[in-house]
Design a protein that fits this description.
The structure is a homodimer of 222-residue chains. The first copy, chain A, has a four-stranded mixed β-sheet with strand order 2-1-3-4, with helices on one face. Chain A folds into two domains: 5-77, Glutaredoxin; 88-219, Glutathione S-transferase Yfyf (Class Pi), Chain A, domain 2. In chain A, helix 4 (88-114) runs antiparallel to helix 5 (119-139), helix 5 crosses helix 9 and helix 8 crosses helix 11. Chain A starts with a strand and ends with a helix. Chain A has helices spanning 14-26, 42-47, 67-77, 88-114, 119-139, 151-155, 157-160, 162-170, 181-192, 194-199, 208-219, and strands at residues 5-9, 31-34, 56-59, 62-65. Chain A is α+β, with helices and mostly antiparallel strands. Chain A is built from eleven helices and four strands. At the A-B interface, strand 4, helix 3 and helix 4 of A face strand 4, helix 3 and helix 4 of B.
């Protein structure tokens, strides 16, 4: 029986992006089910009753939620492009950093916009980003994963694309090239990866003008 | 070469408890390095420069931080007692719930005590606990893991022991038997597991009076 893989997503979702990138890196055929966040489908609510959110991956009828849990599942089930290393110690290091970026760094960044750029929130976000900056500086690689992107790069993808547009939409700019040269360089490298640049459709990475309009509507002060 | 396993911990730490329970379930010999939170060792700061916190596991010189990342590492490296299922789908379900309890439910509970029992914080924590209550009720098992404890039970251990004592110390009681009968029953079952009841030393599960005094000092309003 051929695998049936369905991804419940919304256009431009930064968390669904992680999953779709993993699926494409692995060369998996999948169907898209587009959700409307204002009118969620019965299927989405059934498949993810806890968070009631995209992304949800349904593989041969089995639903999985939480973007990084899904990405680890994809890496477990399908061979080919390695998203996590095989070695247990290296794997734990990758999990540590993906978790740090996902659960500490990105929430600190969201607090900046949620607080309309409160000084304390910016200081906290910069403190966390500095940890990431130092890691990139010490290792001196193109990506967190070395020469190729891995789970950490996937976890950090919000920082590569969405964050800059969000800064522009809100006019709250704190991730500058001066302050975070290695993160900025990493973001440039990440956006040049073939699957990111050429393979993923605009539904997944919306053109900047479109994303800017979306963020302006969501976070704008009008 | 024999494995060298060292655990950096502090007495009574609910997050280090997770790791020590996993080590004992696997039957691993390990050494304890007791840290003083007010005067952290150079080793701890070197091994966990990001969070500067226990627990840190050092296995043959390799340091690993973040309790659930450590527990997954232990399960990866040592065979014997299975902490996560082998099947990729079942594994993803266990990861989803361990993450929900660790990153959503327990932080919501901490907010109750941090806010001195603010009504809104209690309502939010109860909402998250209800999700856990429903899961236990639907499945009807002794543990999250079925007949034996697994990663979810380990992630939830704070709820089994520390939470009740914290409620007593602060006189903020919201996890009652009436409201959460299945969670209460699970907690009783968990505390009766042989390794929890008989094997772990008082350093890991401090006697109730001692923990009560500690929490009173930390959260009391004197």
């Amino acid at each position: 029986m051929a695998d049936e893989v369905k991804l419940y997503t919304t256009p431009g979702s930064t968390f669904a992006f992680r999953v779709e990138l993993a699926l494409i890196l692995k060369g998996i055929n999948y169907k898209i089910v587009e959700e409307n966040t204002k009118n969620k489908s019965a299927d989405l609510l059934k498949y993810n009753p806890v968070h009631k959110q995209v992304p949800v991956l349904v593989h041969n009828g089995n639903p999985i939620s939480e973007s990084l849990v899904i990405v680890e599942y994809i890496d477990n089930v399908w061979k080919g492009y390695p998203i996590l290393p095989q070695d247990p110690y290296e794997k734990s290091v990758v999990r540590f950093w993906a978790r740090f970026i996902d659960s500490t760094c990105i929430p600190a960044i969201f607090k900046v916009f949620g607080s309309n750029g409160a000084e304390q929130a910016i200081a906290k976000a910069c403190e966390q980003l500095q940890v990431v900056e130092n890691k990139l500086a010490v290792e001196g690689n193109k990506f967190f994963g070395g020469d190729n992107i891995d789970l950490i790069d996937i976890a950090a993808s919000f920082i590569a694309y969405w964050l800059g547009t969000l800064e522009e939409a809100t006019e709250i700019k704190f991730v500058t090239k001066d302050k975070f040269p290695r993160i900025t360089e990493w973001a440039d490298n990440f956006l040049k990866v073939e699957v990111v640049k050429d393979v993923l459709p605009p539904r997944v990475i919306p053109p900047k003008a479109q994303l800017l309009a979306f963020f302006k509507q969501k976070f704008g002060d009008s």
